Every structure is written in C-alpha cells, then in structure tokens.
Amino acid sequence: MTDYLQTPLQYLKGVGPKRAADLQRIGLSTIEDLLYRFPLRYEDRGRLQPIEGLKAGQEVAISGRIQSTHLRGTRRPGFKIFEALVGDSSGSIRAVWMNQSFLQDVLRRDAHVVLFGTVEARTGLQLMNPDYEVIDGGDAEGDPTDSAEDAATIHTGRIVPVYEKAGAMTPKMQRRLVYEVLSKLPADLHDPFPEDVRSRLNLPPRRTALTDAHFPPAGTSIDALNRFRTPAQMRLIVEEFFLFQLGLLMRRRAAVRESKPNVVTVDDRIREAARRILPFRLTDGQRSALKEIVEDMQKPTPMNRLLQGDVGAGKTIVALLAALVAMENGLQVAFMAPTEILAEQHYLSLRRLLEKSRFHVELITGTTSGLKRRDLLARLAAGDIHLVVGTHALVQGTVHFKSLGLAIIDEQHRFGVLQRATLRAKGMMPDVLVMTATPIPRTLALTVYGDLDVSVIRDMPPGRRPVMTTLKTESRREDVYKIVRQELERGKQAYVVYPLIEESEKVDLKAATEMADHLAQEVFPAYRVALLHGRMKQDAKDRVMRAFAANEIQMLVSTTVIEVGIDVPNASVMVVEHAERFGLSQLHQLRGRVGRDSYQSQCVLLYQYPISKDGKARLTALAETCDGFEIADRDLEIRGPGDFFGTRQAGLPLLRTGDLVRDHSLMVTAREEAIRFLENHALSEPFMASLKQAWPTRFGLMDIG
Ligand code: ADP
Ligand code: MG
Description:
The protein is of the alpha/beta class. Helices cover about 40% and strands about 20% of the residues. The chain contains 27 helices and 21 strands. The strands form four sheets. It has a seven-stranded parallel β-sheet, with helices on both faces. A six-stranded parallel β-sheet has the order 16-21-20-17-19-18, sandwiched between helices. A hairpin with a 6-residue loop joins strand 2 (about 60-75) and strand 3 (about 80-85). The chain is globular and about 95 Å long.
C-alpha cells in the first residue's frame, strides 16, 4: 500500500527539486511533514475591512491595489523609507516600511496586495511596517500558477494560514501547496490515533483535523487558532504526544520484562555496615532516595533510576550506600564520571569512605599506564576489585567484570549521554543509577523521564547557607577584588571563572591567561594563583586540581572546566567574568562550587555592556534564588525547551506540532490516555510494528527496544 502522506514533496506539481530542497531545509520532505507542521500564525482575511472608515489603533487586514509607490531617503545615511498608497473601492491608505528598499521590487504599482497590521494616526492614517502578501501582479518572486480564482478562494476571503518562509518558497506558495495537497487527501485516510481515545477526548478524525488546522472553517476563533487550541490543532498535538508516550511506556515495559542475574537482599549485617561508613546523618531527602534505590535493587528486574538533586545535595553518599549493598551481596560496582578529574575526585573520596571496609576500590582512566592497567583489568575480571571508578570508557572499552551488579553514572548536568542500551549491548544487565544535577523543569519531566524512575533529593545537608550572589558591572572591579582579598585573608580560597566559547576559543584563552598573570603579579602577589583550562594536558590539570584541593593554590583562574563537580569546601568566593555570556543553568552549576559547607560563601557576577534583556533577566534570576528547580523553570521560560540543554542530548523528542511548554497539559492528558490504552488493549502486531518503525524516525530518539 503506498501511503499518500509519504509522497515526497518534489513530486508535487509546482514544486520541483529546487523548491523541494528549500522545504527540506526546514525539515519538510513529505506530504506528512507538510501537513503536520502548523502555520506560524493565522490571519483573518474573511472580513477584509474597507479602507474607508478605518480608525487609529485597529488591527486590520485590508485588500487592495497599489496605486503608487515611493522610496525616499532620510537624514540618516543609507536609511530609506518605502511607501505605497493602497486603495480599494472605498478609499485608500498609506503603508510605510522602514529600511526595506527591496520592497520596491516586490510591491509594484497595480499589484493586488493584502496588508495586515495596526492603523496609526500620523499625518493622516497609515499602516506602519504591515505584513504584506502579493495576491497577484508585481511579485518579483513570481508565481504565475496562481489564478485569480486561487486568490479569491485560497489567499483571501477566509482565515488563512501564514507559514514560515522556506528559501524561495514564500508563505503564499506554501499555502497553495498545502491547499492542493489537502484537496487530494484520500477519503479513507488511515488514522493512527485510536478511535476510542479520540472520541473520549472529543477530538476530530485525522482528515478533518488536518484540513481544519490549515484552512479553518468560517467562524473559527482566530484567537483560539493563534493559541493553537482549536479541536483540530489539539487533535494533532495530542496524537503526537500520545504516540510518543506510548513508545516510552513500551520501552519501559520491555525493561520490566527483563530479569537480572543477581538480585540483592538486605539484612541487619548490611545495615550495620552502612552505619559504620556513614560520616554524618543522612537528610530526609537522601534517606528516602536511598530507600527507593535499594527497593529497586531487591526487585528481579534491573533498576533504571535517575537520582536528581541540586549541586551539593549529597548524591555521592547515597550512591555509595547503594554500592555498599551491592558489594555486600558479592557484586561489583562501576562508578562512572563524565571527566577524568571528576573520576579521580570520586575515587579519592570513595576510597576514604570505604577505608575501614574490606572492599577494594580502584581507579581506571585513560592515563592509567599499560602495565598497571593490565593488572587492574585482570583483578577486575577475577572479582578482586569491588568498586571501580572511571569515565564512561569503563563500560565502552574492553573491560570485563566478574559480576557487575550496579552501574552508577554521575552525569552531572550532561544528562542522558550513556544509556542502558550500551550496557545491554555488552551483555551486562546491572542495576543502573544515573545521577544528575540538572533540575529538570516540571514541564519537561514527563517527557525526559517518561521511561525512567526518578528519585529527587530536594533538601540540602544541614547548615548550608545560600550563596550570596551579586551583580557588578566592569566599573566595579576594584570592589570585587576587595571582596576576594577579604576571603583570602581569612584563609579561604577563590575561583575566577572565564567563559570559553568555541568560536573565539583562542581569544578567550588568551584573556584568561593574561588575567591569571595579572592577578598573580599585580593584584594578589601574596597568594598563589593558578590557571586551569580545557586545553591543558590531563596530568597538568590534575596537578593543579590537587594543589587547589590541598590549599597550596589559593586562587584558581579557570575556564568552565570546573563546572563539572569539583569539591573544595574551603573555596568561599567565586567571580564569574563575562557572566552575561553564560546560560542560567550553567551559572547555577558553576556557583555550586562554592557554598559547600556552613560558611557564608559569595558569588560575584561581573558583566559588561551590551547586555541583552534576556541576559539581564538570567543574571537577576540567579541573584534572586539558589533553588535549582526554580532556576530551571526560569531558564526554560527564557530560552525555550529546544535550547534548554540541546534537544538530542537531553533525550527530548523532536516535535512537529506540539510544544513542550505551551502544550504541557496536553502531554499530561496524552500520558494518561497512553497508560489507559495499554491497560485495556492487547496491541495488534501491525500497530506495534508501525509504532516501532515510526518512533525513532519521528521523534529522533532511540529505539523502543
Ligand atoms: P552532589 O549532590 O553535588 O554530588 P556531594 O555528594 O558532592 O553533592 O556532597 C556535597 C558535600 O556535602 C560533600 O562534601 C558531602 O560530604 C557533604 N554531605 C553530603 N550529605 C551530607 C549530610 N547528610 N550531612 C552533611 N554533609 C553532607
Ligand atoms: Mg557530585
């Protein structure tokens, strides 16, 4: 069966290879893509207003012919104003565009145009920078296939969709294309959205939804359309979300059917062993997270759990106690960090905590020498090493375990890099615990966590004080140094952080290097200042880090390499240079390097002009709160989900009609429906097969499994 919706766009009349390539560039290759893409907005051209009688302040759509045009200069060199006098049978009005000289080739005399904008009173009424569309004549991008009849039925006289421009494919050309494609939709178009779900939610069938979402019937609320809340639009959004959630649930189901080779048990002896290594009382949040984790470990299916907690919340000790349970059950544990420095830090603190136990802890990194490495690998395979710390290379390389029971993955904020699939592919089926310091905003949680169990530590170890955060402009630099000096005099340590942006890496690195020299020689000659950056060799980095941790260095000037989890509680002040260049969540992560004990720490955000409105909003948000969840919500508001942490990396789906923030409540509905659907239906083989096939291509995510 050839599916009409899968027809490549280049085969359509009036498209051809060049225009198809333009559409492809914005992600549209098939009819399905074209139809499952909402317009940017809708314009009501059903009641085009007569020009006579327009009033200042009205938002209007008018239709008329261009009677004359005029391009004039202004006092500002190069700045031109284009004017057109547009008339219909009732009268005429002036339209004015600033600095768009090219319009003289687009809006020609006698052309029939539709203008959309707000009426202003100047010397007479006028439309300032209105949106325009050439219905016929004068359009330099010419579209001779559009007849006068098209103009009357497709482009005016109704509510029309306005699409994103795609190269030479104007919004108008796309409108006609969509119109034609819709007019040929097969009457018996297959509908992947289950009938009973659809009718319970009172949503229209697919064919109606597609048609009405692009060419809304007369009387549809323009306001509802532009909020994407008509039944037709919601039907397409919910369809997308429903299939997505169904896939997540199936993936989870597949995981639940697996059974792991080793199930742990917990008894009083193990509880006592845990008590012995614990250096402090767990917070309530830590205790309940640990309980959930250990319950999972006692189940016959592999654990797949995310441990979420803000920087400094104390995730490491929770992971270690879980590790202890595994080791007491005769199983091995792999502890993986995103970088070698972090792996080493974890190694040092885990070894210290396990000092009094009988378990052997070792570190394997890229810099472990050949001989030592071979020895360690042999001991690992023999089961003589109980806990091994390393980077992700641990499970990706040629490492064999005797019996790996638990894999702990400290991803910090780099969520989702390593997935269960990697382990399974290596024939291992351990419990998996992923730790992340990225507070996922509520609105994204259902999507990102759809197939994971989650434990959240919301409280902080006792005695912590929120980091005092202040904004300062470059002109206050001396004040900032005063703050830093005060801390150093008290025996504390300081971070100075530089942004490092890939495009200007060399320049930034030079700035950081010069600043380190300047601080060392001129500003703080009595203290030891060192530089740390990503281009340094691993062992050089490690030396600096160790010296800083031992307080042999008092001030660390670094590029953002420190954001991934350094723990030096004696550091009490952080200065962030060019704070305006960092993202909100990134700044929050950075700030988490100070305030790691009960001492009052400070963070100074130095910024320079020009700073964007968003940039200022980010810095202000950071100064106002230390709550990672609140910061994540604000970050999402400011940036939108796509940018939140890089769609692919975060495991966010590629969505066509839905928007994770705007349509959050529909995602909740879709999830409930998907759960109910799976409970009540034995999925037919063809349905499963089509979902399995569609899932990765449609959402750009990994297999359902
Ligand atoms: P993160 O969640 O960012 O990985 P860590 O596990 O590194 O946080 O813990 C941060 C610091 O807090 C460490 O120095 C750790 O020893 C300390 N800590 C953790 N839990 C507690 C607790 N319950 N009481 C006191 N200090 C704690
Ligand atoms: Mg940590």
